[in-house]
Design goal:
- The chain has one domain: Hypothetical protein, domain 2 (Endonuclease III, domain 1, Orthogonal Bundle), CATH 1.10.340.30.
- α2 runs antiparallel to α7 (94-114) and α9 (140-151) crosses α10.
- The protein has helices spanning 18-24, 33-46, 51-56, 58-64, 70-73, 78-85, 94-114, 117-122, 140-151, 159-168, 181-191.
- The radius of gyration is 17 Å and the shape is globular.
- The chain contains eleven helices and no strands.
């Protein structure tokens, strides 16, 4: 098939569901608070696991976590936590589940103070966009964002987790040089109106 002949990032051909994710989502700039929050949560669940595992369960995560509407997740109680721990279709890690609920509450606070998650997160867009693709796992901005979020009470938001978040949400173009998406992401980032 024509799609399979495209030159992609090496990782994109390593699993059947990766090409679609790579071609349609990864690296495209996002300014929607709910999608940004979802990605932060999924990165939390990925900690210590493979992205393939998380992607295969993403629809189940969306159902279990009210499509990552952080206003709804912030209201989750002990009964809901018990329900999530019994849900075999998601990652049943109590620390991560509690982190997502905590971070939903912190997201509400941040939006009340800053206007939106997007406006806050995009302030940490890496200044140096000329770094060779796939050459680093953190940057000065992911370290700074990690510190800023932890100071606000967020958990499971280390610099490496946040760099992966930046890659996937378009704050940096980390598609490999030979990848057909690199130029498309470059153009999308050029046309993207940064939230304020």
């Amino acid at each position: 098939m024509e799609q399979d002949q495209k030159s992609r990032c090496v990782w994109a051909d390593s699993a059947p569901d990766f090409p679609h994710y790579h071609d349609k989502e990864w690296g495209l700039p996002v300014d929607d608070d709910q999608r940004l929050f979802e990605k932060l949560c999924l990165e939390t669940f990925q900690s210590g696991l493979s992205w393939r595992t998380i992607l295969s369960k993403r629809d189940s995560f969306r159902l279990a976590f009210q499509h990552f509407d952080f206003h709804k997740v912030a209201e989750f109680d002990d009964v809901k936590v018990a329900e999530l721990l019994a849900n075999k279709d998601i990652i049943r890690n109590k620390r991560k589940i509690l982190a997502v609920i905590n971070n939903a509450q912190r997201a509400q606070e941040l939006v009340a103070e800053e206007g939106s998650l997007a406006a806050f997160l995009w302030r940490y867009e890496p200044a140096n966009q000329d770094v060779p693709p796939a050459s680093q796992t953190t940057c000065a901005e992911s370290i700074a964002l990690s510190k800023a979020l932890k100071k606000r009470g967020w958990t499971f938001v280390g610099p490496t987790t946040l760099y992966a978040f930046m890659q996937s949400m378009g704050l940096i173009n980390d598609h490999e040089e030979q990848c057909f998406m690199r130029q498309k992401i470059h153009q999308a980032r050029k046309e993207f109106k940064r939230p304020t």
